[in-house]
Amino acid sequence: MSGPGLQTTAAERTRERGAELLRLALIFGLPAVFIVIPLVTFLIYSFWRVEDGQLVREFGLGNYVEFLRSDSYRFVFGRTLFMSLQVTAINLVLGYAAALFISQRRGRTKYLMVLALIVPLLMSYIIKIYAMRGLLGTNGQLNQLLMAIGLLSEPSDLFLFNLTAVRITLSVVLLPFMILPIFVALERIPASFLHASADLGASPWQTFRLVTLPMSLPGAVAGAMFCYVLASGDFLAPELVGGTRGFTYGRAVFSQFGMAFNWPFGAALSVILLGVAMSVILLAGRLARSRWADR
């Protein structure tokens, strides 16, 4: 039996299905176009090679073999990963202390501090790097402060155009990425848990060690993941404040796409770094899930 009512219902269902398919296409199609396809293209490029300035579209593992055989590339790769670990450790300590301080504020003060953290993220990355370059230079504020308190008798070039400058710059620039996830995790801890711990006779340190720290670890893991991945792949900060003594893996990748014009080898270097980044993300996800499961 059919009628106008049943036909209208069928038409509405068809429109709903079409709208649902359109939403799914937008949700999954756009990431596929702008993320997955470029990554797959890089992966394919990494198996090709360049001969006499011409791209040879023949699959092989020559680029990866060249990386493994090159002591200089392996050294820069290992040094960059270790430097990223140092930046992450520094930001973990500073970021947790800052997030804990902000979370303990009350009223408007807390959210003004959070806003102050978000504003730098809206600024141009290059502007922030150049600001750090001015701060760390021989005539910068850091040298002036150290001379004012008597630690230096004259301006020092120890803070610019070396790996120390890269560490300091990345630590400062990436610090909000550490603070915000930890702050969100701290905000999710019910106040009743802290009150119950105090009522049971726990000291503030015991409450922090047994309640606050374990329950905020997922935020710390997320912040550490952001800092490590961003620091290991950054090339702009090492380029502007690192100099010849602050050469990193990101600059090696950048040089292959620029001066060397060896896109296949640059793609292979990028894929290797992507593998490290994906491993860190998967490890962070497993740690976060296990922590939430324990709760």
Characterization of this structure:
The structure is a single chain. This protein has 295 residues and is mainly alpha-helical. It has two domains: 4-45; 70-294, MetI-like (MetI-like fold), CATH 1.10.3720. 78% of the residues lie in helices and 2% in strands. The protein has twelve helices and two strands. It has a two-stranded antiparallel sheet. A hairpin with a 2-residue loop joins strand 1 (49-51) and strand 2. Helix 11 runs antiparallel to helix 12 (263-294). The longest helix has 42 residues, at 4-45. The chain is globular and about 75 Å long. The chain starts with a helix and ends with a helix. The relative contact order is 0.12.
Write the layout of secondary structure elements.
Layout: H1 4-45, E1 49-51, E2 54-56, H2 62-69, H3 71-103, H4 108-122, H5 125-136, H6 141-148, H7 163-187, H8 191-199, H9 204-233, H10 236-242, H11 249-257, H12 263-294
Antiparallel strand pairs: 1-2
